[in-house]
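Q: I'm writing up a methods section and want to include an example of the input and output format. Could you take the sequence below and give the corresponding predicted structure tokens, formatted cleanly so I can copy it straight into the document?
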Amino acid sequence: MADKFAIITGASTGIGFELATIAAREGHDILVVADEPLIDAAAADFKQFGTDVRSVEADLSTFDGVDRLLQAAGGRPIDVLCANAGHGLGGGFLDQDPTRWRHVVDTNVTGTVYLLQRALKEMVARNEGRVLVTGSIAGYLPGSFQAVYNGTKAFIDSFVAAIQDELKDSDGVTITNLMPGATETEFFDRADMEDTNVGTSKKDDPAKVAQDGWDAMMAGKKQIVSGWHNKLQTVMANVLPNALLAGQHRNMAEPGSGKE
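A: Here is the clean output for your methods example:
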């Protein structure tokens, strides 16, 4: 076995897949998880780097799913946790199926918070460990036609900053918030946003976003906004009124906005 052990959630595609690739390439044994069978095919790809790779299919919107993931770790100390699992949901809020928006909340918020609590307790006890949480610049923006998702990311961005302060005396444990913008993943297809302006526009490379996050985590940084255009957007979000930001988001996310 390798000296270091990493868990990466939401690793079947996108940013999570790239984070798992980096972890394995950097010599970590990895445990990868997603809520779809594709995670097993992804795990086969990670084995090219010669470390131990295990995969588990679990729904991380539930306590049971998180418990199942941690049980699969077999009690091994977690050196790196990439809490990346999450998904979005486009369209008007009043038109959304409550079971779908609840799953967004339970995955992005409840499952993430529970996983962090479980993992951080063990890390703090031995004063060693690195955590990367995938937040989003969406947390800065009132998300017209993506309201629930943006609200969950606002929670995560705030929550991570608070826990960083609570654990500031645990100098061997670091928590980094990775805040990407629109990234070229399956996110927009799964969120029913392929016909929107943001869904049809050019997006960031998930491999670069993942590398930015990994490097920031290893450097012990508190947060990283990946991409200069996303950095600019967060600066503007701190000075523009919410009504204007919501209107700008409508232009990006309103159904049909991406059609000619």
